[in-house]
Design a protein that fits this description.
Strand order of the largest sheet: 3-4-5
Largest sheet: 3 strands, mixed
Number of strands: 7
Structural class: alpha+beta
Helix content: 25-40%
Number of helices: 7
């Protein structure tokens, strides 16, 4: 939550962000008053952006709101059977792959993790997704460094949801398009440069160069 809990008299908003495993691209984001609403917004955005039928392989922490959001967005009501009441609740579908990585803590220190495969075959899910949330933890730290409204124990928090959504939108645009990541660089054949620096959008094939702030402000709606 932003700001963190324990501060009375201040509004709290939850931010949920998806990170693509290979390219580190942030394809969807949700800001809401509750974790459930934020996760639901993220899944609905992901469905509009290239996954209309089924969700891609996903991993998260042990909180259960993401699981309910998956069923709400992509789940289907089973067909009616004879001599029974018609079903009304959505159900998960075959082919889904979803992993929860639950941390084990002792005195606020993580001493281990427990993988829980919610959907899909265990061996296949662990092979595709890996048994960690390192990328999520890394992007959380990056967000707090880039966006002052997400920093903990400061006075830069957002009192309105609209301003937090605006700052998060600018942060994601800068992260996806303007910021090169060292882990995404590739060898360069030129004599003067050893590496070609790439942004997440370049790694995903959405653009062929690092954008400038002017390009982002004038090209994005």
């Amino acid at each position: 939550p932003y700001p963190p809990p324990g501060r009375t008299g201040r509004r709290q908003f939850w931010r949920c962000t998806l990170v693509e495993h290979d390219t580190r691209l942030r394809p969807a984001r949700g800001v809401a008053k509750t974790e459930s609403d934020g996760s639901l917004t993220v899944m609905q955005t992901l469905k509009r952006r290239g996954h209309p039928e089924n969700p891609p392989p996903l991993s998260s922490d042990g909180w259960g709101g993401h699981r309910e959001a998956l069923v709400e967005v992509w789940g289907k009501v089973p067909a009616r059977r004879e001599k029974t009441k018609p079903p009304t609740r959505k159900q998960p579908q075959a082919g889904w792959q979803y992993l929860q990585v639950v941390p084990i803590r002792r005195n606020k220190t993580v001493i281990g993790i427990v993988p829980r495969v919610r959907y899909g075959k265990r061996e296949e899910v662990l092979r595709i997704l890996g048994c960690h949330t390192a990328y999520v933890e890394r992007t959380n730290l990056t967000s707090r460094q880039m966006n002052a409204r997400l920093a903990r124990k400061t006075l830069g928090f957002s009192k309105s949801r609209e301003m937090l959504e605006a700052s998060c939108a600018w942060e994601d645009a800068a992260y996806n398009l303007m910021r090169p990541l060292k882990t995404l660089r590739v060898p360069c054949d030129g004599p003067r440069r050893r590496w070609q620096h790439r942004s997440p959008a370049m790694a995903a094939g959405l653009t062929d160069h690092l954008w400038t702030p002017y390009e982002v402000l004038t090209a994005l709606p």
